[in-house]
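Can anyone check this?
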Amino acid sequence: MEFNVSVLFTKRFWLTAVAIVALVIFVALRSSTAQEILENLTPPELPDSITIANRDSFDQNWDAATTERFHFVSQGTATLPIPYDWLIALEQPESSAWGLLWPGAKPAFTEANYLGRYGFIASPTSDENPDGLPIGFAATPFQNLAGYPTTTTAIGFTCAACHTGRLVHGDTEYLVEGGPAVTDLQGFSKGLGASLGQTFFASKLPLPNKRFDRFARRLLGDTYSATTKAKLAKDMKSVIDAGAESVETIAVVEGFGRLDALNRIGNQVFSKNTGQRNNYTPIDAPVNYPQIWTASWFDWVQYDGSIMQPLIRNAGEALGVHAAINTTAPIDEGRFSSSIPVEDLNWIEATLAGPRPPAEARAFGGLLSPKWPASLGDIDSALAAEGADLYARHCKGCHMPPLNSEEIWSERYFKPIEWQTYNGAKVTQADYLALKIIDIDEIGTDAAQSDILALRTVNTAADEQTGRQGMGIDTTVCAPKPQYTGAASADSGYDASVSYRGNSSENSLVPVQVQDGPMLSFALALGAVVQQTDNAWFNANNVPADQRLAFEGDRPNCLQAGAGYKARPLNGVWATGPFLHNGSVPTLDDLLRPADERPRFVRLGDPTFDTVKVGLQQPELSKDSYPAYVDGYFILDTAVDGNRNTGHAFGASKDGTTAGVIGPEFTDRQRQALIEYLKTL
């Protein structure tokens, strides 16, 4: 029997190397922060990949070039905390830190099937997307990233990252332009952090793991050397250390398809950008990504009907996903300058809206809602006719006549917006859909999202003891005149520090001078900061005052808080599940029932479409409790504040509860009839 010394040496070498690596990991994890280290190095469990043989889309009035640009046009954001080329060079994380014991490369982090398990939609390489990243990723050059030593090309999310939906039926995936995304951004952040952490950890390990070396060679190319590799490791540590200071506090898990956008925007603008921790609020009011078709012609947008002007809405969203903004320069030397490309935001809004006001054209343009395709099953026309009558009796009063009807063009529904300024009354040139905003006590749905703007305050004042300067807020916005004795007259505005709940359908809109203060209304403070950010861009780009109105959509910067939740037209609603603002109801069938007949637990993350109940297909979830994630899917517990599925109910609950009941209990046939009709909108 021959004895191969080289084989024995190889085995001993690798066994020794593995033992050394194991010892390094063991020592690291014996520290006081062991569990935190292990947690940060462990990616989330993900759902299995969904097999897709075909991809289809709906005719929504956009051509291929427009759709492609919308998917990848930059908002000037640096959403991810690492340089663009780092993302391209990273590998997928090992399922646990112990995987670092073994040699062998993992596929690229940006591999389409892998990112698809976080809910991102694959897209091929193109001029707009040279690296074949998923829909919603865009490069933003010349950005300053926390911990990184120079400016660099960053990677940010576009509008399409949150507003491109997907439905899966059989082996076909349908893209819904402007529909709610199914991404898990919190899970994605954890997965990216694990990949980055494992890569850096590998830089400190002896053989056999080569993860960091592979990363360095891909990134550095011809400049790879021991010196450049060491500098890269140093830069990576600096970025990781900086990122550790901005971790979110999660009170209510968001999961797939949901985001606490308002609190995240507030935290970014008033806490992280300014370094004021006392302005931070935990994440506790997630909402389902809303569909955005037709929204350009609403008088108020957001679920809580809180914002009027499209540029304020879009620039505020860009700030929330990490567009850079200067809050420290002198007032006259660049304060509130930002990385937001307002021309891009203007293009996005114009593309969504269409070239002519719909009341003038008597037709909607821009992005249209999807039409129910025959491939999902034929619509039962007889049932749909019954449903039309039910809609007229029980839905039209809030959600308006269908947008494909003649009645919608009535002056009852399309109206100009009127508001007061210090120089007198003004009115918009175009007419807008005057949406009904329903008080929380009447609609009965979870109040967490509506309460954010109504109750949250921020401190932007200077502090003489610490030497902190004020944020520099000093501008005029508008808001509903408060309803209390002694309110200031419409031509003089009112105190912006007052906590108020308004509804413009009942109150005139008046000017408000907003200035730094210790307890500013979050709604007014955010509107003011975004206004000054827009003004800084106008000034830097020499946009004349008479041309700024076009960028602002010919609408004032009006804000309102605590008015309730808006009832939008239901065109395309069939393609927008889950339902209610927080995504707590999986199907239209569930939504049209008494609240206690809705499922307590809702699985999110699976885009499989239920063509009968219309919405997200659901497994049987009959246990009393579930962890937040099961098999990689998020399990939404509607017993948690912020997740509640109450309100907008049809029929009282079995215990006699009538709160939030807006209509009678339907029979099975009536529910199906309404669903068939909603497919036609």
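Reply from J.R.: I decoded it. Confidence is low (pLDDT under 50) at residues 1-21, 485-506.
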